[in-house]
Amino acid sequence: MKKKFVPGIASVVGVSILLTGCGSYKNEASGANAKDEASSKQVLNLSSPSEIRTMDTARATDTDSGQVMRNVFEGLYNLGEGNKPVPGAAKSHEVSGDKTKYTFHLRDSKWSNGTPVTAKNFVFAWQRAVDPATASEYAFLFFDIKNAKQINNKELPANQLGVKAVDDHTFEVELERPVPYFISLTAFPTFLPINEEFFKAQGDKYALEDNTILYNGAFTLSDWKHEQSFKFKKNPTYWDKDTVKIEEINFNIVKEKSTEVNLFESKQLDRIKLTSDFVDKYKKDANFKERPNVGVQFLRMNQQNKVLQNVSARQAIDQTIDRKSFVNTLLNDGSTPTFGLVPKNFAKGPDGKDFRATNGDLTKVDTKSAQELWKKAKKELGSEKITLELLTSDGDLEKKTGEFLKGQLEKNLEGLTVNIKPQPRKQQVSLLLKGDYEIGIDGWSPDFADPITFLELFTTNNPYNLDHYSNKEFDEAIEKVKTTLAGDEKARFDALLASEKILFKDSVIAPLYQKGESYLEKSYVKGIVQVDFAGQLNFKWAKIEK
């Protein structure tokens, strides 16, 4: 998901005993008392990098909102350890012989107001997501369902979507073609159910506050103080509440990494991510942990900009960035330089070989070549002096990333001036989505386990084609992957490999790095599941254990 996006930050929550930040860190269990409470009660104290951007499942596009939704709502399936789908609102399902019809059998479960979760809740939510009036940026994920694309194109009404509530506990889905990752997709936030009666009763207030939402997940959202803090509380109506051990999770929005580290040290936070500034300091700490990630960060280049319409200019920008230096000096967290879009150790072909290993490096760092390309671009553009604006978020890492890129580009590309535009995370995302930027730091974590979750972003009409790239050959290749090649595993995989090569022949983006993650976690915290798709945490199985 858009996240999908670089780890973003929204507001500063300081702490009175620290020199950084301002205001007041609100936590009933502070200082040494926090450790006592955490050890004796099932309470987690965590930070959030930003305000919850939205709680409307049809409109969420960012990682931070998605993480909240993953814990307070539940789809047909959930994602557990190793990203494996586990039954959620559905206790089982059947698939037709041609793999185009899924029948889900719902368990007896309830919304947080005590009303039953029914098949109609899924019908309503999915129809709403594809309805063009909703303007869901993730509507395209439904396009493999019968009539979804025509509905989104205003050719059919939403009630013609290929979904049906046979009865309260039976939900049928008819696909246009086989989709090998469909079960995994049902755990994605846009596929979560909505109680239609409650939704309509709330009107324009729906999902704006914690009390204008119904929950069917392991937790409920409460005490939502915008731009400051929020809480998860164990949902007493959840069907699997006996599995859920955590009673409460306190989230405070913390902007400065040094503030976050000090809060961990003073026993006010139980888990935090680390940036490069702190990795060496804590590598030998008993609380230090690290893990690989399948999210990628890259530099977007908006082709609505005259300079960036020039392929030589884009190639020059791409080839001048020293990814290795960037990763080693700014990150130091297990992240690795990347020279493609689809990450390593994410998807394998029919031969069992990794996608990234098969396609290899599709770009390079070559300062001399970059300078020649830049000279060519300037000549074609008729200008020796060029200025570009670099959009970033205002978090610590993003600011440093912006400075690094500015230094690299201005040093190696003569006549180029880069002006950095740091914005609060929410505003940065908004500007990216509106295409109101020139070059911008962005990223993507997969929504499901297939390379198309990365590649499809750059088709002409995809809502996440924020660079306004258009290539008929690429569009046709992706369309074949989704249609005529859907049942041929080898041909489909080969087409995906070829599609990625087209993107890099055109230098659509400049890939930066594949994420790694270093973090500190108190020894008494157990069972938090990291979901690679969108890089989110699932707290259903978490617990405090002495």
Strand portion, in percent?
15-25%
Work out the number of β strands: 21
CATH C-level class of the largest domain: Alpha Beta
| Count of spatially separate domains | 3
> What's the CATH topology label of the largest domain?
Dipeptide-binding Protein, domain 3
- Estimate the global geometry from the Cα principal axes: globular
**Unreliable stretches covering 5 or more consecutive residues:** 3-39
> What is the rounded distance between the termini?
35 Å
GO molecular function, one term: peptide transmembrane transporter activity
Pfam family, one: SBP_bac_5
Domain Solute-binding protein family: 84-463
Membrane topology: Lipid-anchor
